[in-house]
Structure formats: C-alpha cells, structure tokens
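User: My advisor, Dr. K., asked me to get a structural model of this assembly before our group meeting. I'm new to this, so sorry if the format is off. These are the inputs:
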Amino acid sequence: MLYFDHAATTPPLPEVVDSVARTMTQYFGNPSSLHRLGKEAETLLRRAREVIAGALRAQPGEIIFTSGGTEGNNLAVKGAALQYRGRGRHIITTQIEHPSVYEACRQLEREGYEVTYLPADASGRIDPEAVRAAIRKDTILVSVMHVNNETGAIQPVEEIGRMLKSEPRIVLHVDAVQSVGKLELYPEQAGIDLMTGSAHKIHGPRGIGFLYCRSSIRLTPLLSGGGQEGGVRSGTEALPLIAGMAKAVRLAAESLRDNRSRLFRLRGRLVDGLEGIPGLKLTGAREEDRMAPHIVHFTFPGVKSEVFVHALEEYDIYVSTRSACSSGSDEPSRVLLAMGMTPEEASSGIRISLSAQHTEEDIDLLVDRLRAVAERLRSLHRQGGTR
Amino acid sequence: MNADLILLRYGELSLKGRNRYKFEQALLDHVRRMLKPHPRAEIRQTNGRVLIELNGEPYEAVRERLGRGFGLSSFSPVMRADLDLESIRRTALEAVRSMDPAPRTFKVQVRRPNKSFPYDSPRLNHLVASYILPRCPELKVDVHHPDAVLQIEVRDDEAYVFSQVVRGLGGFPLGSSGKAMLMLSGGIDSPVAGWMAMRRGVLLEAVHFHSFPYTSERAKQKVIDLCGRLAEYSGEIRLHLVHFADIQTRLLKEANENLLITLMRRAMMRITERLALKHKALGIVTGENLGQVASQTLPSLHAIGSVTTLPIIRPLITMDKEEIIRVAEQIGTYEISILPYEDCCTLFVPKHPSTNPNLHVILQLEERMSWLEEYLAEAVERTETMVIADASDPHRPNVSDPMEQLL
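Assistant: The format is fine. Below is the predicted structure of the whole assembly, which you can bring to the meeting.
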C-alpha cells in the first residue's frame, strides 16, 4: 500500500496514539474541577499550550484550542468580522481558500458584509499587490492561506504581513493548516494576527486544532458556554487530543528542517518523473521555494480526476483529486478555475501529497504506475472518452 | 568573572580537633553532591586548601550551588597565573577590573609558599601594586580599611589571584550531625525549622500528617513543593505521608474539646518517634515557637514532648515571627507556605484550646483509649514514603515526569 494523500490526513504517530490513550486514562479530570484530578488536568493543559506556543514562538495565552482547521478558520474569519464590524464591513480573501474560509466569507456576505475574492495567477499564487489594491477604508480583515491545499502553491503571506503593518486596523488571518510543521512561519514575527493550524495534518489526532490569536486581537466567540479558552471557545477542553496535538507539534517542529529537505528531494524526484509522462501537465511554479515540499499537483486533461484516482487504486496506491472536503462534487475545481484553467483541465486535477517517511523507491514505483495508468487512460480517451 | 578555580573556606570546622578529618570528608561529600550538575568540576586538596577546579564549568552557576551548601563559611573565585611577573601582574589587573562594585581602595597581600620564586612577598606586593595603580586612575591604596584585598598566592607551579569573598551559609556539612525527622505541616514555621536544623548538619526526613478527605490533595502537593525547596539544599529529601484522619476523627469523638489539640499532637509525636526509630533517626525537629499558639506554651510543650525520649530540636523556639518569615523568604518556602489550603492542624480546631493542659488528666484520658495503640500502629504501617528531588537541578537523575512524556 502506498498512501500519497498526506494533505488530506496523516496516520497518527505511535507516540501520539500513546499520548492520547494515556491522557484519556490517567488525566480524565476536567481541567476546571477543583479536586486533584482537575488540578492535574489543568497542569497538563497548561503545559500542552506552552509546547504549542513555543513551537510558534508565541505566548501561551495566544493559543486557542479548537476542534480543528474548519473551526479555527470559522472562528478567525467570523469572530474577527463580528468583533470589528464597527470599523467596517469589508473583507479581502482569495478565490483559492479552503471552503472553511471561503464559505464563511460567503455567509458573511449574506449578513451584509462585502467580500473581495482575489484570483490567483497561472501558477496558483496570489499577488500581494492585488491585496494592496483591494484595501478600502472599511476593510477590517484579510484572510489568505499559507499553502494552498490543492496545488501546494505557497502564498506570499509574509509580504502581505509586512504590508499590513502600516494598516493597524486590518486583521490578517492566515490559514496555515497545510504548512504547520512543514514550513517555518512564526506569526508574531510575520505580522500575522490570526493563524489556523490542525493536528491531523501533522500525524496528530483528528478533531483538534489551534488558532493563534495575537494578544491585542479580540474575537467574538461563536459558541456560548462556560468561558473556556479565555472565553473565546467554550466547551470542556479535549485534553487527550490536545496532549496528542502537542506531541505531534513538538515532533514536527523538531524534525522540520530535516523533513523539509528530505521532502524537497522526494518532490524533485517525483516532478522529474512526471515531466516525462505524455499528456500530464504539472501545476504550479517550477521554483522550489514557491511550492510546498509535500504537495505535487498535475492535470490530465480529458480524463476526469476521479477515474485516475480509481485506476491508481487498483495498484493499491492512494492519491487525491483535490481538497478532500470537496472531492465528492462533480464540479470542476474552483481553485483551478481561479488560476485560469479551462473547465476540462479543472476537472482533471490530481494531488499527490507526501510524507517524510516515503522513500525514493516509493516515488519511483509511483511514477511507474502513473505512467502505466496515463498510457491506459489516454488510449481509452482516444477511443471515445472515459465515462 | 573568568574564574579557573574556587577556593573554599570552612570556619567552625577548624574547631573540631580530632574530628576535623571526619567533618572535612562530610563537607567534601556534600560539596560533591552539590556539584553533581557540573560533572567537569573537580575537588582538589593541596597545601591545606580545598579548591574546586572548574575545568570550564560556568563560575556563576557553580557559585549559585555553593551558596546553598552548608559548612562553607566563604569561598572565592580564583584566577590562575603563570609563574612569571608579567603573567601575575596582568591577571591581578584583570581581577581588579572585574570586581563589581568597583573598589575605590585596595591593598595587595602576597603569600609565597614557593620560596624559590625570585621576588619575595614585599617586593612582589610592590611590583603588582605599582603595575595596577597607573592603569586604574580611580583606585587608591589603603592598607588599613581597603574595599578590596587582592590576594596573590605563589605556589610551586603556578600563582593564584583572588579577591572576592562570597559568604557561605556556614554551619556544618549535611549529615555530619546525624539524622532527624522533621514534622512538616505546610505552614511558614516548620520548613524554616527544617532548614535551620539542616544547616546544623542534620540530615532530614520529613513527616507530614494529612487528613484526607478533610484536607485536600492540593495541601499535600504544597508539602511536596516545600520539600522540593528544602531538597535544593540537600540534593533530595524523603517525605513520609501519614494518614491521620482516622485518629483525628476518633479523638474528636472521644476527647474533651479543649484537650483535643494536645492529644492530637501527642499522637503525632508518637508516630513520628516510631518512624524515626524505623528510619534510624535520632531526633525530632519541629517548628514550635514559644507562645505562638495554645499548643506552644510551656505546659503544652511539656505535655506533648513528654511522649518521646528522643531529643526534640526546636530551632525557632525563641525567634520572632518576623525573623522566621525573613528566613522563609530567603530560602524560598514562604510563597509556598502561604497558599491557603487547610492542613490537619487547622482542621477541627476547638474554640478554646487549653494553654495549660493537665498532664495527669491527659494520661487518664489516654488510659481509657484502648484503641489508640492499634490506630497508631496502623498509621505507621500505612505511611507512604516518597523521595523528593532538588527541583533546581536540571540533570536530576531518574526523575520521570509523566507529563513531559505525554507532550
């Protein structure tokens, strides 16, 4: 079995599973309880928060635990929009955001906010100048992702962060779900006010994530309740998942540099292999520093991506069409369309996402199988389509 | 400060005549324990001096640890010079310049055990001072009351230059006075009493009485934290946790209210004595302070203390509360002691405890408590023992932090 869908989710590390299981049995107290079990749980919660804050070079009080990337993005976008609506009602985001940002903005539009959705260039990148040009007097929020979950294109969030330093009334949110643990990005230093992360993309447990919230920023909570997480996110803390996430974040941070260079080597090998396959078009920029180390995307115009996925499945190889959250729909990819692709191209995208545990042999085998599948589908396609 | 060595001095030890050797060894053992986090540092004994060779270990960190060592009257960071005039002069200048605060007056004091060195002491004294003075224009010589004494010791293979004198804690090296049990409540006084006994060379094991569920787990944690502070002076400390609720509630039912405290304290004292015998300790240290509370009047101390024949050490007995608090702040136990958790001494406190308990009545009462002996034996039996490590030692061995492993 070869699993190349690490951008969708990753298998949890044994250390993480152990950490979750042991926290469940040994620290089941409610951190808010007065007794010893509560006290211990509270201590563990505090220390987990410190670990994650440390990895982001942030203060522990700036970390809000959430149920994952979707909640983090919703809390950031809606929480900031509601909090600062007195300043204005204009939001800038992009056409390539994850649905949890994109749809949250759509919802805000229905509530009377105005949203500018910036397109990407052919390489899948947002132009920071376009962000600058879109700023209005009533702009309160800019939300741009760090690494696009479909193409792997890195967005210039640090440039945007620098630019917005002179616009203190605008809150900058970055969806870093695909880049945490892969690329170094320290929000405080980068001028980012809100930054979303998720544990299960970095071999952590599912159902848990965090939102970095700069200490000077206030968010309107989406949930009413007992006032946990500084009142921003009520609900009994999911301590086992939080401990597991801290473990995963720590391990990812410790091996980030090694893993990154390893992934870039593997990625380079894969890209070289793909370039030799006829009919297959690589997506994104050629420059290594413009693309995330763990994602390779290509299109195979004329063949629906779903067909390609199932054909590879016969070899026990698992890849993805696009954001796992949208891959059920039959529509062409919104992200690829935003990059100027034709509907036919935008319906044929394939995403391969790597882990640092992959070997060069794995990559070679994948290229081999991709070549075979491509050849077979191309001939079918010539004989009258694949449907 | 660029120290190569540290010169150790011990005051009272020199009074100890034939036992000197034994005490010196106890001191060296203690210093060795204190230096455990600095494995490169070595202890050397030469020419009647005890020196620590730092071998690259940071002086500031080692100073910090020596500052918590009992038995040292003072110590000095030492810089090393080659056996030639130039090197001695340059090192001496560096030593003067690194003094903080900068001295306004100084004098040079030379010792020359190495008689083959070409300059004798007065000559070298003059040669060093005349080198330093023009280079430190603010500095003057004062042979009577100098701010700093720059000491130079010319030895067979090298010279030592030192001037700073850091005061040590004094007292006797830990363990040189044997072992005692400390009755540790969690309040302000008992940790201070323990520390003062430790300074007198007593190795301590702590005994704490808890009355779970009437006292909370946080109160127990508080005592563990207090032991962690004391362990900063001893490397580690053993803590015996005695389950006292059964005895306490039974006494509450049967005893005259105004004698409850006396009876409780007598039971605690008896349990502590038994633990002392079990763990080969020959004394009991308490934080009792004359007149502070009803159980600390002379009649009360007599009624409570008469249950044991072991010496009861009461370091705080005549101190003022302010003095006690000052020491508690200095040794870092105050901030822990004032955390507001109920302990078993503040629990079920009668409105009017007797300040003058009648020992005759007490004895008669206890006579009728046929259950008491069994309860005492069971409390000793059920006692839980833990070893508390020095919280400030980053290299502390075998400390398993279960949370650390989870994160």
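One thing worth pointing out at the meeting: The domain at 2-8+256-381 of chain A is CATH 3.90.1150.10 (Aspartate Aminotransferase, domain 1).

User: Perfect, thanks a lot.
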